[in-house]
Design brief:
Largest sheet: 5 strands, mixed
Distance between the termini: 23 Å
Bound molecules: magnesium ion
Mean pLDDT: 85
Shape: globular
Number of strands: 12
CATH superfamily of the largest domain: DNA polymerase, Y-family, little finger domain
CATH topology of the largest domain: Dna Ligase, domain 1
Helix content: 40-55%
Number of domains: 3
Structural class: alpha+beta
CATH class of the largest domain: Alpha Beta
Length: about 425
């Protein structure tokens, strides 16, 4: 459905709900004895583990997302490391969306801990969006979990509502209107705007746009020229109440693919090809988690130096989202193929590129709940990844990423990075 609209609108009817310290709060919700204590949710709680979600208490003590566990322990010695439970968070996500849908039908999940509540067509029953926001906070405490808090931003469009939800944490409520927008923008850098990364910021700065305020007051033509696409014009619309450009769900992904060409060094050993395949599956997992979807179809296509190709497609019933699960299914298919045709391995030293594609998506909340039991992430596969992380360490991985283009490393870093969720 396309709910984008291109006419000036200054009525704040969009609510952006962002759960605070979501993974850590879910852990505190189910374990009473974690409440009030600094908790760090980690994919792996060994020495070189990495905190992917610090609790509100841990954040107050200086623990940051992505911090290494041994560093976090130095600044916060009573930090309680807790291993991640993806199935648990998905279960809370499903309950959260169900609660939001009791307010209106126009609810769009944006990620596992964020959703847009579009009250544009509900101005008659809800004349005051702030009252709705308070009611949502209450309903979450009553029906999802009494320890769960959220920050809600209210604005005339999705982008500004998300920006507003970042202003006050935890348990925030911020309204952005034409009167207050410049005040909010003045406190921010370009890279604080959701959707502006360092590369985009550099590009803007090369064209003399150094701050969010300057971005807001650049002409649409200038922005179009700077971005060399319609993207620039969208920034103008977002920051000038020109309408809604972030609610077009019709362009929802039909498929997602993760593809890498393979260097001579990578194809030299099967281990590296394995790690690369895993990294591609994890990349797709992250993107599906981010968009709140599961896939029902998975395919792998390989291209070899000679120009030959190999392709397989796997139907997934039930739908899947877990990267190691996808990896496992592909490996099963490959070994079955190789048993029948033992002459040559599919993953071999002549491989030039590997492409993993997922498609036929269903929304997370349409997947039956019993599937969320955490039967995923088989130990052996998880170990592969942890070994990589332990071997290189988070900081070294980041440096490797900056210095080299090695896609294995780049993808593995992203794993567990909450910014991607
Ligand atoms: Mg959040």
């Amino acid at each position: 459905m396309n709910r984008n609209r291109l006419h000036t609108n200054t009525t704040p009817t969009i609510l952006f709900v962002d759960m605070n310290s979501f993974f850590a709060s879910c852990e505190q919700q189910v374990n009473f004895w974690l409440r009030g204590r600094p908790v760090g949710v980690c994919v792996y709680t060994g020495r070189h583990g990495c905190v992917i979600s610090p609790s509100v208490e841990a954040k107050l003590r200086g623990v940051k997302t992505g911090m290494r566990l041994d560093d976090a322990m130095v600044i916060c010695p009573d930090l309680v490391p807790v291993e991640t439970h993806p199935g648990r968070y998905r279960e809370f996500h499903v309950k959260l969306i169900a609660v939001l849908r009791t307010f209106c039908d126009d609810v769009l999940p944006k990620s596992i801990d964020e959703a847009v509540v579009d009250l544009t067509n509900y101005q008659l029953p809800y004349p005051d969006p702030k009252q709705v926001a308070y009611a949502i906070k209450r309903a979450i405490r009553e029906h999802v979990g009494d320890y769960l808090r959220c920050s809600i931003g209210i604005a005339p469009n999705v982008f500004l509502a998300k920006l507003a939800s970042d202003v006050q944490k935890p348990d925030g409520l911020t309204l952005i209107t034409p009167d207050t927008l410049d005040g909010v923008l003045r406190t921010l850098r370009l890279t604080d705007l959701p959707g502006i990364g360092q590369r985009m910021a550099d590009r803007l700065q090369r064209h003399n746009i150094n701050t969010p305020i300057e971005l807001r007051y650049s002409t649409p033509d200038h922005l179009k020229a700077v971005c060399q696409s319609v993207i620039g014009w969208r920034w103008h619309i977002r920051l000038n109440f020109g309408g809604e450009v972030d609610l077009d769900t019709s362009e929802h992904y039909k498929s997602m693919s993760a593809m890498r060409t393979i260097s001579a060094e990578q194809r030299a050993t099967l281990d590296k090809l394995d790690a690369l395949l895993m990294a591609l599956c994890l990349t797709l997992e992250r993107r599906m988690v981010k968009h709140g979807i599961f896939c029902q179809s998975l395919s792998l296509s390989c291209r070899y130096e000679s120009g030959q190709t190999y392709q397989c497609e796997i139907k997934l019933q039930p739908p899947r989202q877990d990267g190691p699960d996808l990896y496992d299914l592909i490996q099963q298919r490959l070994s079955a193929f190789q048993q029948r045709h033992p002459r040559q391995m599919v993953l071999n030293s002549h491989l030039r590129s590997m492409n993993v594609i997922v498609s036929r998506f269903v929304l997370t909340e349409q997947v039956p709940l019993n599937l969320f039991e955490d039967t995923t992430r088989k130990d052996k596969l998880r170990q592969t990844l942890y070994d990589l992380k332990a071997k290189f360490g988070t900081e070294k991985l980041i440096r490797a990423n900056e210095l080299s283009d090695d896609p294995v490393y780049r993808d593995v870093i992203g794993f567990g990075n909450i910014n991607d969720l």
